[in-house]
Design brief:
The complex is a heterodimer of chains A (411) and B (74). Helices cover 20% and strands 31% of the residues of chain A. With 411 residues, chain A is of the alpha/beta class. Classes of the chains: A alpha/beta (411), B alpha+beta (74). Chains A and B meet through α6, β23, β24 and α7 of A and α1 of B.
Amino acid sequence: MSTSLTPPRSIVIVGASLAGLRTAEALRTAGFAGSLTIVGDEPYLPYDRPPLSKDVLTAQDPAQFTALPLPDGLDARWQLGRPAVRLDPRARTVTLADGTRLPYDAVVIATGSTARTWPARRPPLPRGVFTLRGWQDAVALRAELAPGRKLAVIGAGFLGGEVAAAARARGLDVTLIESAAQPLERAVGTVAGGFVATMHREAGIDLRTHTTVSGFLATDDGRITGVRLSDHSELPVDAAVLALGAVPATGWLADSGLALEGGVHCDAYLRALLPDGTAVPGVVAAGDVTRVPHPLAGGAPVTLGHWTNAVEQAASAAHTLLHPDEPEPFSGIPSFWSDLHGARIRSVGLPGLADEARIAEHELVGERRLEVSYHKEGHLIGALTIGRTRRLAAYQRELQALGGAASPLAS
Amino acid sequence: MQITVDMNLCESHGQCVFAAPEVFSFDDEDYLVYDAAPSDALLDKAEKAAAVCPARAITVTPAPSTTDDTTAAR
């Protein structure tokens, strides 16, 4: 194994979604002419996931919304429907579920995240309880969304809120169950959370905050009939969705030796780290699976399940692989969006780390408008708008100035 | 360079405004407005803006090179 800093000749990308595809694209655009293999656990070419909780659940023709066109000249060998089960960084091989061993000079870990499931293993979950992460999940859930049926959505975060809104738009009776005082409270605070709560209720969603689910009711043959709530009431439902957050998909790396607590630990150049903090030769990571120090968090590691994070980290990871002598630290300003009941929620920075939220505009009647800036120890750390996207650019610029050097894509 | 934005696809995410504020901005109603023929010096920024658009609504067409013989067609 060579330890000199020479660019790789063969690269295996594990993960055939946005981060993997964009890393491949960035490698080819930068002139990488070696062999490129892309491994995916699903049997599909890359597709776009944000529509899975929006248009895919509501539109007549769902497939058109997830198209993710492949760039010309990608020249990749696809290994689809064949999940990776093992990474051996010393032998530099990736092993697939069918035993195939793929040797590499460099590997990109881009396996994303999986839906957090119900904590209790027993009794098994009844049929009619769904999670939402991939295309098949969305197709299965979509089939349940017939007008007049009763749906419980457990967890009022971004995904749960969007699923509830989509189901309500399809004419279902929707109960949205949230353990905190407001939806999205930990992510964006009580003011924005309360704003979203009002939007849900005005749309006719039965939002129950300070409420958890203690169990499921089912028929003898195992089909859900209801959920039992923390106030001891029972809510009859025809189906339920678990929207309890995402977990980085690191199971296949269990014996790789990498540091995996809360995601693949990376340095600022997206190089995967050992538990002692040293970078592993030839291993980088990008997207939801990563845990990366961020200047906005004072250099503390953050894990972000955002579309733009996957895109920007892909560019950084590709740069690190091709320019091992002069890598550039990743410092893209996080941003995310959510579309709820026709309102556009847009955010930049890390609002979840704030100790103070300042309200610049709050208009719930008629045209819904919200502008909140988030601060930590007096410094700007994020912003969120609803119906006021044009106000975000100034915050984004300020955060970029605070965050130091720009990432390859955000420069 | 020529820039076109499919306004049927645009969802006002704002990523292009962050990436290339010289080219893209919003009006008072959060509708995107942009310079359809910006200076070629902004090509890198415009291409980044297209790459980060979640709606894939932006198309950037670099100016034909000056050695391009299509100029003789007129």
